[in-house]
Amino acid sequence: MLFNSYPFIFVFLPIVLAGYFWLGRSGNAAPVLWLALASLVFYAVGNWQFVPLLVASVAFNYVIGMLLIRARLRDRLRFAVLTTGVAGDLMMLGTFKYAGFFAANLNALFSTGLTVNILLPVGISFYTFTQIAFLVDAYRGNVARYGLSHYALFVSYFPHLIAGPILHHKDMIPQFEREGSKRPDPHLILCGLVIFAIGLFKKTCLADGIQPLVASAFGANTPSFDQAWIGALAYAFQLYFDFSGYSDMAIGISLMFGIFLPLNFNSPYKATSIIDFWRRWHMTLSQFLRDYLYIPLGGNRHGRVLRYVNLMITMLLGGLWHGAAWNFAAWGALHGAYLCINHAWNSYGPVTAPRFARLAKAAAFMLTFLSVVVAWVFFRADSISSALFVLSRMADPTNIVFGRGEMANAVFIAVYAAVAWSAPNTQEIAGYDHKNRAVGESLGTWMRRPGFLYAVAATLAFGVLGISQHSEFIYFRF
């Protein structure tokens, strides 16, 4: 079920909200069970055959986690239990997401005839990583004892289930246990509606609005220099507003239930370095890769050379997490190389004189953005060869068309760039503070004025009117 669909907005969400708060009047357990069951129903729409897999994954990891938390096991046995849990999760993820990829590569290398056709369960990467983090923390002694219903809701919570953010048990389960969240809070519901409306507008009007321009580079047989750049930039902004819109909608929906989700998107195209970019883009994935892969590999504790090796391994695996294809591996490796260069420049590069600080910052901003756009070509292309072909056209200024259509498209993209680079992001507009569990303070008295409510209603209306039948979020594929 899509957030940007009529059944979700006008049927599913109102029913789940009403049931949640109605059951909240009689106790704390019933609304948790209701929300967990509603999340399974949400997942079952279009993915019903994978509901048993999700339920089995939750049950398996809960048992492993409780063994690590409660059982008095020797260190070696506890490590064996952790290994069993993580291996089981990775085996499940590998079977459904990477079996076809491995078979295709074996066929290419050894001329075998292996055929693997396995449907990819939506959201499997997100709920698998969420549970791996839970098991590792349980092994480290950083997990409290949780009830099965709260754990099941933590994993399956529908605002995050399909495309993130990757949740952390310490942040979410205490919120699910809090009795105050079971009573309707008009302020949180209104703020949630504001954020949801902004996200819906971003998705249906901005992301879907620029999507046709992507074909300039990735749909044409032989794009010109300007067409290749228009297509690559269009995809960069389509992905930006698509993922930003989803992240806003997830936060807004969760706020209506009195639950604060972590930020996952913070104006990444305003970054002035690749390091800064990864602190702003898919923030919960970056934190997961840092805490559960980069640091366990050794991080920066064993010298600069191994630090760069660990960065490359982390980003390469991060690329493959997005998709079982070599173009995703190339995208991850490219960002790994970017990060290595960024860290090396920070260590060995010259110090910028104060009088050149603004110029240096502007140059860093443009270099970062162009580097990200080049990498997105691998992310969007069907193969490495297709990506290299598009990049070759982007690097050939001798072949320029720039007719009326291209000029209009360039102006269109310039408007998107101005919004992404200059406009405040949603959390700044709404005053969303996940850490302090606060929202709406920056809006102040505006939220009680009719004009503000009309603006929210108009934004929501434009978003609803922009809904199309083929408007799936890009990150649903990962």
Fold blueprint:
Layout: H1 6-24, H2 29-44, H3 51-70, H4 75-110, H5 124-140, H6 148-156, H7 158-161, H8 169-177, H9 186-210, H10 215-218, H11 225-256, H12 274-278, H13 283-297, H14 304-322, H15 326-348, H16 357-380, H17 384-394, H18 404-422, H19 426-430, H20 450-465
Helix pairs in contact: 1-2, 2-6, 3-4, 3-5, 3-6, 4-5, 6-8, 9-11, 9-20, 11-16, 11-17, 11-18, 13-14, 14-15, 15-16, 16-17
Give a short summary of the structure:
This protein has 478 residues and is mostly helical.
Notes on the protein architecture:
The protein is mainly α and 478 residues long. The chain has two domains: 6-182, no CATH class; 186-477, no CATH class. Helices cover 69% and strands 0% of the residues. The chain is built from 20 helices and no strands. It has helices at residues 6-24, 29-44, 51-70, 75-110, 124-140, 148-156, 158-161, 169-177, 186-210, 215-218, 225-256, 274-278, 283-297, 304-322, 326-348, 357-380, 384-394, 404-422, 426-430, 450-465. Helix 3 runs parallel beside helix 5 and helix 3 packs across helix 6. The longest helix is centred in the first third of the chain and has 36 residues, at 75-110. The radius of gyration is 23 Å and the shape is globular. The protein starts with 5 loop residues before the first helix and ends in a 13-residue tail after the last helix. The relative contact order is 0.11.
Number of beta strands: 0
Q: What value does the Rg take, in angstroms?
A: 23 Å
The structure class reads mainly alpha
Distance between the termini: 16 Å
Order of helices and strands: HHHHHHHHHHHHHHHHHHHH
**Which overall shape is indicated by the principal axes computed on the Cα atoms?**
globular
Helix content: 55-70%
